[in-house]
Amino acid sequence: MSIDTKTAAHVAKLARIRVDEDDLPALADEFNTILGFIEQLQEVDVEGVEPMTGVTPMRLKRRDDVVTDGNQTDKVLSNAPDAREGFFAVPKVVE
């Protein structure tokens, strides 16, 4: 599969990326390079290889899922421009 400048412009538009006309040939070349790498990966025989989440076997650290309030209300509200009764006070925006 090969990407031309028209397809590169279409991909850029779909990604909502503005690309100058002069830069489209370079972008198409980059896309073609990426597609070449993907084609190389598809040639690898992975039959019988189990998927893994990482390259080194590690057990994830776990902690108890305990709900707390953090006991830091004063510290959290110290930077608030306006705090009342332990909460952030904001201007009313809906009538």
3D structure, described in words:
This protein is mostly helical. The protein has a domain at 5-42. The chain is 36% helix and 4% strand. It is built from three helices and two strands, in the order αααββ. The protein has helices at residues 5-14, 24-42, 73-77, and strands at 83-84, 87-88. The chain has a two-stranded antiparallel ribbon. Strand 1 and strand 2 form a beta hairpin. The protein is flat, with a radius of gyration of 26 Å. The termini are far apart.
Number of helices: 3
Q: What structural category characterises the helix and strand content?
A: mainly alpha
Number of strands: 2
Mean pLDDT: 89
Cα gyration radius (Å): 26 Å
| Span of the ends, CA to CA | 57 Å
Shape: flat
What is the helix/strand order? HHHEE
How much helix is in the residues? 25-40%
Protein name: Aspartyl/glutamyl-tRNA(Asn/Gln) amidotransferase subunit C
GO biological process, one term: translation
Subunit structure: Heterotrimer of A, B and C subunits.
Pfam families: GatC
Supply the key terms.
two-stranded antiparallel ribbon, 36% helix, mainly alpha, single chain, 95 residues, flat
Q: Brief overview, please?
A:
With about 100 residues, this protein is mainly alpha-helical. It is built from 3 helices and 2 strands; from the N terminus they run αααββ. Helix 1 (about 5-15) packs across helix 2.
